[in-house]
């Protein structure tokens, strides 16, 4: 079995908590280098996770390191430039979300990947989740009938509130980042992953906390001026005819027991319990109205409904999917065209807010 040489750039909290601890569980991947613009951080992460080499810029990484796949886990404003350099250098790529800040940026990345003949997969990872894939199978089988509405709630109290950080989180509240790009991208990806491309978008948005206090990590107690960007969004997506969706997102909920997503059909409902578990046996509940089968009520998937191979997803598996796509010459599970459509929605939302109207979208996937 070939082991693909992987490099990771961006040694922040998501790399520390999500990717670096578990990349070793992907048998086809060999992590050969980490990279960060802060030398001490790159060096410390290399030592902590037993990575043989570390670098301090994408240019140095590309010049000096022999690798085949780049994982880009840098901050949001840096994604496009780094992605373009990697793709033009002929590297296969997984990028954290959002992969770019405009439709034009994402289109440029897609075209660069095609020109270089490399595979490019784009976060968020939701459409590879076991529970969402199982829900899509139930929908495809007609279990809950025709989909009428999807309601998604993806919020938290802000990156300064619940995540332990060694770096200053102020940048999350500055132009080029913000709640829409950090959190809205999740709900929009999940919703469009279920329903497909939206036709138009509307939105209401507010600033819920103009001054925020860091509650954990190195900067505990520091105050952040957070009055430049909205942090509380209610987004509506129009699918024409009888179908629509509502996406609630932002840095406006300290916690919630509301479902992360609910899918309403003419014959039933699928709800995703908000417990952080992506195992279908734990996270899904299904309401069925099936009089022909004598069923009218809530059910949970049983063990025999879900193969064991579909109950062990973790985020590093996006790298495994990318490797399999390369080896099998098939499409990746997280196509950048889907990411571009989500960016289209996010870039159109300011117009929807300003005009208080439903604004047409122009991309598909």
Automatic annotation (TrEMBL):
Gfo/Idh/MocA-like oxidoreductase N-terminal domain ranges (all copies): 5-121
One Pfam family named in its UniProt record: GFO_IDH_MocA
Species of provenance: Hungatella hathewayi
Listed PANTHER family: BCDNA.GH03377
Name of this chain's protein: Oxidoreductase domain-containing protein
An example Gene Ontology molecular-function term: 1,5-anhydro-D-fructose reductase (1,5-anhydro-D-mannitol-forming) activity
Class of this enzyme: oxidoreductase
Top-level division of the source organism's lineage: Bacteria
EC id: 1.1.1.292
InterPro entries the UniProt entry points to: Gfo/Idh/MocA-like_OxRdtase_N, Gfo/Idh/MocA_oxidrdct_glycsds, GFO_IDH_MocA-like_dom, NAD(P)-bd_dom_sf
